[in-house]
Amino acid sequence: MGKPMRDDEEQLIACSQRGDVNAFNQLILHYQPTVYGVVYRMFGNADVAADITQDAFIAAFRSITSFRGDSSFRSWILRIASNLAYDHWRRTQRHPAESLESLTDEEEPHSASDLNALIETGREQNPEAYVLNQELQALIQRGLEMLPLEQRVAVVLCDIQGMPYEEIATATQATLGTVRSRIARGRARLRNYLYQHRELLPRNYRLPTNSD
Amino acid sequence: MAKHENRHLTTEQLSAYIDKQLSAQERATCKLHLQTCEQCQSNLATLKQTVALLKALPQPALPRSFVLPAGAAYLQEQPAQQQTPAMLTPAANRHVWLSYLQRSFRPISVIFALMGLVFLLSGVLPTLHPGGGTITPTTSSAGEASSNASPAASPNATSSNVHTGVHTPAALPRDTTPTSTARTQVITTPGTHHETALAPPLFALNTDMGRQEIGWLLIVLGIVGVLLTRRKRRIT
Questions:
Q1: CA B178 – CA B191 distance, rounded (Å)
Q2: Is ipTM strictly over 0.90?
Q3: Which residue in chain A has the smallest CA separation from B82?
């Protein structure tokens, strides 16, 4: 994702470090879908995601001089964003009433036949590629929000953003082993959650024979 | 090897297997096990499907652009703020050290003032109340003890303290020990400690007046110390 602009990127970072907002805005334009996407998937709330994304870019510009280029700019900006996301999460944990609306995960289950009709499944060349309808997207999103925050971030960065483990480790300030285990546990938990709502899943979705 | 093949693969192994994050050897054993174990095959398949569902989630549409407005005040403060902690860390350390010194300087000044008060009282009280009827037993005995100790020769001062210490409360040794140490210092190292070396000729500790004088001096020093630290605090 960041590869085509890798050459420009260093220059833009150097200009930003000299206080050039326009150069930094070029970086923002490139990374805002990633940052917003990650935070959105963490909380499933567009307003929260927008606030955290904006704050993350402001904080990043403020501290751009501390960026040494040891890690990718993407993992650096995502580290700032995930730290802010953690802060937000801690605040909402302390005051659950504020976030009750966005965090309610139990909705009445829909009838399976209606929903299955809405799901487009399978493609000849890649049977595992799904086109998800709104309901299923919402189900996965709720499943993500059921995960502990560390696992949630790791799964989002790995499976939704397609980041390598090393970059996730940098972005979440964790070791590779921790990242590996968080991803595994997050995936397993999410699978079990989806299994509980299997009536919403595509027909060709293979259900676990045992739950561990 | 046979044992490894029989043992089911953990979710973590399978998850890392999907991402090709296993070592070549680990991967080979996983592959071998998966060929024969249906349970692990199913486990792997469902994990893969979970990953596929996550991958299929669309990128949420951006509600707006997060581009920063040029020349905004909060942006211009920022590079400066960022540079200061990185560049001025030694100065910041010095500042912390100074404030620590200030903080410790205050209680020391207070202790000085209190010590001065004790000296002053030990000098004043015996002269005001020669009978000692209304005075608390601690101060009167302290005054008596120090006056008792004073005629004795300086090396014997500590032994007399021990002797009287049986009857008098804990306040007494505190009052008398500085005087005895001051004297021994005068004898042994007169040049090194100016304050202590000067003390005996200026303030005769074995007289009430001398104790009053040193009491006043300590109180003044203590108050000055407290005032100085207060001012510094306001500035910072």
A1: 18
A2: no
A3: A63
The answer to whether the CB atoms of A209 and B45 lie below 8 A apart is: no
Q: What single-letter amino acid sits at B60? A: P
Q: Which of B54, B68, B74 is nearest residue A160 as measured by Cβ atoms?
A: B54
Q: At A63, is the secondary structure helix, strand, or coil?
A: coil
Q: Which residues of chain B make contact with A162, given a CB cutoff of 8 A?
A: 55
Please report where in the chains the tokens 């207060």 appear, as a residue: B230
Contact: B70, A194; criterion CB under 8 Å: no
B78 contact residues in A (CB cutoff 8 A):
58, 61-63
Cross-chain residue pair B60–A37, CB shorter than 8 Å = yes
Q: Give yes or no: residues A127 and A194 share one domain.
A: yes
Q: At what angle do helices B171-188 and B89-128 cross, to 10 degrees?
A: 110
Range of the domain at A27: 1-104
State which of A104, A138, A169 marks the end of a domain: A104
- In a shared domain, residues A27 and A109: no
Clarify whether residues A168 and A203 are in a common domain: yes
pLDDT in tens, chain B (236 residues): 444 556 899 999 999 999 999 999 999 999 999 999 999 999 999 999 999 999 999 999 999 999 998 876 666 554 444 433 333 344 455 666 666 677 777 788 888 888 888 888 887 777 766 554 444 444 444 444 444 444 444 444 444 444 443 444 444 444 444 444 444 444 444 444 444 444 455 566 777 778 888 888 888 888 888 887 765 544 43
Residues A96 and A116 reside in one and the same domain: no
Contacts of B10 in chain A (CB under 8 A): 184
B54 vs A contacts (CB less than 8 Å): 140, 155, 159-160, 190
Q: What CATH code is carried by the domain that includes residue A206?
A: 1.10.10.10
Through-space distance between the first and last CA atoms of chain A, rounded to whole angstroms: 35
- Asked if residue A36 and residue A85 are part of one domain, the reply reads yes
B84 to chain A, closest Cα gap in Å: 11
User: pTM for the complete prediction?
Assistant: 0.57
Q: Phi/psi class of residue A163: alpha, beta or left (left: φ > 0; alpha: ψ in -120 to 50)?
A: beta
Q: Specify the DSSP class assigned to residue A85.
A: H
- Interchain pair A64, B11: CB under 8 A: no
Name residue A120's beta-bridge partners.
A131
- Decide which of A104, A133, A159 is a domain's last residue: A104
| Whether residues A118 and A79 fall in one domain | no
